[in-house]
Design goal:
By secondary structure, the protein is α/β, with parallel strands linked by helices. It is 25% helix and 25% strand. The protein has a single domain, classed as Vaccinia Virus protein VP39 (Rossmann fold, 3-Layer(aba) Sandwich).
Length: 275
Amino acid sequence: MRTYEVFIGDSRVELAKLTGRKYKAVITSPPYNIGKGYATYQDKRIEISYQIMLRDVFRECVRMLTPDGLLFINIADEAANWFRSHDAMKVLESQLPIKLVHRIVWKKPYVQALAVEKQLGFAHEFIFVFAKTDNYRFKYYESNDVWEFYARKGDTDHPAVYPPELPIRCAKLVCNEGDWILDPFGGTGTTIVAARELGLNATICELSKEYIPDIKKNIRWGQSLDGDELFQLYYDGLLQEQQYCAPPISVSWSEGTDEENKPEEPLKEGLAKWF
């Protein structure tokens, strides 16, 4: 059975409650600290406060990362500080038991030109890849470390949605079917979309309850792909809602058997009792 968990709340608090769980990959895009208009989170704070927040969140992520797992962090620079993302990642590396093993460039095929004379449009972002040990291996072949795919906004008020291609390609580098992946800045649930695509289990944390409808819509809450899937929503540390999708049941009978030997309609009703 594949499970998709959505925790609403501060990921520093919610993840600290999880014990015994191990994730093969942490794939996420934290706030960039550039003043985006999130529903709850204040995205413009002094740099030291921002770095402390990242450290505390990723400390919990690293605690639950498998020894051969990888941490993928998508983040970008800004015009006022071209090296801000690299500086933040260096601080993170110095404070946690991880090491930077690669940096992937996400190239965006189309970027709107900026209406300024001395600034070019931002056509790329970075995906920093960290490991806990030297035991990691890239299991999926990528031709190079420049990945090209479109950004997307989607039908949502969330100001910073990343495309599913990003977590899909990251997960394929290290995960096997049935592994768990984690996103501590869950947004509208794109990492669960990737998990469903690849046959993985997933946990996301999202601070703002305002994005619950977007999450449910994006991940197709309760809509089974091939059955045997469990959707769970936690709020205030408690399980508030869940929905189980049972695997399809196929019943065959011999050719020529009369109508009375066919499966009865109550079988369908029985499936609903799984939840």
